[in-house]
Amino acid sequence: MVIVRSTLTFQPVLDRIADEIAQTPTRGRPADYIPALAACDPARFGMAVAELDGTVYGVGDWRQPFSAQSITKVFTLALDLAREADELWEHVGREPSGNPFNSLVQLEYENGIPRNPFINAGALVVTDRLHTRTGDAAGTLLDFLRTESGNDRLAIDEDVAASEAAHGDRNAALGHFMASYGNIDNPVPVLLDAYFRQCSVAASCADLALATGFLARHGIRSDGSRLLTQRQAKQVNAVMLTCGTYDAAGEFAYRVGLPGKSGVGGGVIAVVPGRCTLCAWSPGLDEQGNSVAGVAALDRFTTLTGLSVF
Amino acid sequence: MVIVRSTLTFQPVLDRIADEIAQTPTRGRPADYIPALAACDPARFGMAVAELDGTVYGVGDWRQPFSAQSITKVFTLALDLAREADELWEHVGREPSGNPFNSLVQLEYENGIPRNPFINAGALVVTDRLHTRTGDAAGTLLDFLRTESGNDRLAIDEDVAASEAAHGDRNAALGHFMASYGNIDNPVPVLLDAYFRQCSVAASCADLALATGFLARHGIRSDGSRLLTQRQAKQVNAVMLTCGTYDAAGEFAYRVGLPGKSGVGGGVIAVVPGRCTLCAWSPGLDEQGNSVAGVAALDRFTTLTGLSVF
Amino acid sequence: MVIVRSTLTFQPVLDRIADEIAQTPTRGRPADYIPALAACDPARFGMAVAELDGTVYGVGDWRQPFSAQSITKVFTLALDLAREADELWEHVGREPSGNPFNSLVQLEYENGIPRNPFINAGALVVTDRLHTRTGDAAGTLLDFLRTESGNDRLAIDEDVAASEAAHGDRNAALGHFMASYGNIDNPVPVLLDAYFRQCSVAASCADLALATGFLARHGIRSDGSRLLTQRQAKQVNAVMLTCGTYDAAGEFAYRVGLPGKSGVGGGVIAVVPGRCTLCAWSPGLDEQGNSVAGVAALDRFTTLTGLSVF
Amino acid sequence: MVIVRSTLTFQPVLDRIADEIAQTPTRGRPADYIPALAACDPARFGMAVAELDGTVYGVGDWRQPFSAQSITKVFTLALDLAREADELWEHVGREPSGNPFNSLVQLEYENGIPRNPFINAGALVVTDRLHTRTGDAAGTLLDFLRTESGNDRLAIDEDVAASEAAHGDRNAALGHFMASYGNIDNPVPVLLDAYFRQCSVAASCADLALATGFLARHGIRSDGSRLLTQRQAKQVNAVMLTCGTYDAAGEFAYRVGLPGKSGVGGGVIAVVPGRCTLCAWSPGLDEQGNSVAGVAALDRFTTLTGLSVF
Q1: Binary contact (A104, D103; C-beta < 8 A)
Q2: Which CATH topology does C11-305 take?
Q3: What pTM was estimated for this model as a whole?
Q4: Shortest CA distance from A179: residue in chain D
Q5: Residues A249, A273 contacting (CB under 8 angstroms)
Q6: How far apart, in whole angstroms, are the C-alpha atoms of residue D62 and residue D204?
Q7: Where are the domains of chain A?
Q8: Distances from the Cα of A292 to the Cαs of A31, A58, C22, D20, in angstroms?
């Protein structure tokens, strides 16, 4: 991929996208499995682009914190990979699942080894291992996000975490099921607590675009230190592209053409390797659990700028 | 086919890769479901890189024709998309299957609509539709490959085609199964004949790297005419990246980081959008049906050149 | 099971059941995959009981021929078992499938060995093997049914057979799929022809109740000769009870409590071992493909007479 | 417990079976998922037959208590059915599962409603509902078993219960999974405690043959009071026949031809409706989790006595 750096900023593109989104009536429905998410207004929309040097452009509700949810799976994956490297891949796969994000079916056929780190089962394995290595997976994540975003107020929404725990039977089932195959280290309730807290991080488009920057900088953090090797950064991007949006990964690759990861809070992050990172947010989801306006905004961005990996 | 040795050529990289591959003893086993493929020597290896202008670099058996097999699915997809555009996607999906390439399971759960055009069921649908639109799917493919590669001797290996037909019960099952859902236009025996002939095209690494060029040129054929829109070319690349190597698409994206497509003849093509196309060949396959040395060669190429999309 | 032979006949019970059925408005819908079956009037109803000595009682349309369809699977199973005994069970299982009658899913997970002889895949295997052993599976079946029923006019409805063949893609898929695993002896088109003719036998409730008699007589045919050993007859009854009514075998056992087998023509046969055999017919089917009024009539019969195996 | 040796007794049959079993070297392996079961000697064997009036015949280790395990599912089913009748069937099905006893796959496809009350998921639902209705499912079961067997020392083995709980991740996964579909009333840990205690009842062949008597007496308890209606007793027998031995129900029906239920402790109960009940025990299991010698003994019993339902 050859990219020529123009003197233009991303602001006009973001403004145009926001205008187009504002004229689009269909927005999907917020996640309704916990009250905290169901109350979100699907009319809200924000988007941010962060350049490699930390310059951020934004539009709409781009500074409004929202529930990051599954977007955090990218960061825990990177934080654990940085610590244990390839040993992780003996406990979680790297293939698309072809099934909904909380499916148990494949897990059973494949003896408790989840298909990839972005379905819930795989994310539980990653969090379990990060928790073992750090003693506090959610805290490690929070530190990382605060540092990369430069936002010290970035925090876990404890109400959301409690609500997740109160509606956490499916994840409890996943945890116990994998534990029955010996693929979980921590006691399942301990793991679930860490996982629900991780999912409940509240962050803005600006925060998340900045925190994703290391994936566009081939593994380098905002302070210039290395989190991942170049090869690992490439690999995380590859897993995002093939597995990042539940069972709509093919659709996302087809439309947006960038490594990306969505969360049921309505956020979606994306990476233009070597160039910039993006985060769009709008709470209304499609049937696969991806933000309708968020994906549409990223689709428009790659079409307008030509900044797809394909 | 014009071969120009530019001052900054890919030749040294290819030579180095060939040296490394020559020192790697493990090569997998040739496909054994038909005698014509089983007889191939797994020690053979070739690789070619084609630049956008048709310049080709090669090493090893890069001019040796081999059975293209599933690699042809990329071309029939493009040839059909060029004719019917998005209507195709009502009959075949764009999501990774997460299952082996000839699985019937998912097809049943999803009412005869294959997951993507690169599993056998999906390729049968594409060939069926191309056959309806052109009257001769295999002939249309052959014309295209000859023109793009500049090789008029490129041909269908009729012995292989006959052998495929004699061992074609699984594909016959797929065809009849989808016909029972109304997703096949032609009589199943007619479709199977076209499909087995398509798979039996014999072409070299040089031929296939050149024929793939339109995907690196954003839809433009070798003569400057447009086959696909820029958006369609991007979309075919996206489907290759997420679905191109059977149930190892995640692994391929993770290791190679390029849109690619493999065939059980031992060939693998790959695309560096805006830059070049590649084809590697070695008959020994891994358990997922992908060429062991072919994938390893592409892995080394992206590592040595940095030409990954991630 | 202890049964005391009374002097009373079954006629009053049948008359009462017919009265009750006549007052039941809900009758389901005839099978609609081929025109010949779709044209049947769901208001029709017949029922026959045959005692061990060949005495037959009947009510309603009990002498009206209808399409026997899957009921014939019981007879081909017995006719093949009589010839090859336990070797058959290496090619077809004896377990309930838990899936619809024409599912390919389980077949794939279990390498082409169908779960039992009463799902379509299993019946194809049985017919294939009987065809190999007799040279004419459908003819062998027809001879048997004519002899046991004493009805020489009993025949294959060639229009139905042609219609089955014209809508036979699903069974063609099953045949080719199992052939790909080496579990079919005859060419698939030959097998399909035999199978579609077998399914198209037209017979009445009286015919089928009489023809089933050997299963109540522990393996003895109407002329006193032995078709099956006592153990084999018990085994066929067991397979009927656990697998005879598609994915509603549990429901049938729960409601009727007898070994039974249904067909999409609306017929259902049942066995009271050591006592009598039954056949009920009404073309309207439920969602599982079983005759609504036919099953209801058998349910009433066992409730009124206490003649359940439980 | 009254033991009368009648002139036409089952004793000679039992003695003969025990002799035959003693000469059979192949016995399978004890369940090894908890130490308490793994320690059992597979050479042990016992068998008891109880007539309708409470007369019991036995051989071998027929008075030796063993872990009843899944055999208790028959009793909790009956105890709950007696309380809520058909409402239960809205929460658990009556069809064979066609899958291993602790599978989550089918449960997911069928939205948290287990296929039948004898797979673990279904048994959890039954215990949950019985616990809601009685306040103490395991205690209710224990009372019932003591009364029917006349054995006041019959007890829960608390060591086994603790061991089950310590290895209970799979059942915890099932419980949480169904809770996520709203199909569990009690908190999952409460349910699991009741369930593990239920499974840990220790009882002998004599105890269990006697306690099963109500199913041969069409619903009547040992004291002459009615537990189930005649229709319900018939239905429980039907569910036992089609679903009682995990994914080998067809095999059991085919070989033994009686309603039966096995447990991983090595016990198997069976019912000859209107005649007698049986329990055989030997700790060595086959791959489906059924007692090798226990099933063989029941097979011989029905062959020697002709007391099959078919």
Answers
A1: no
A2: Beta-lactamase (3.40.710)
A3: 0.89
A4: D169
A5: no
A6: 6
A7: 11-305
A8: 12, 19, 55, 70
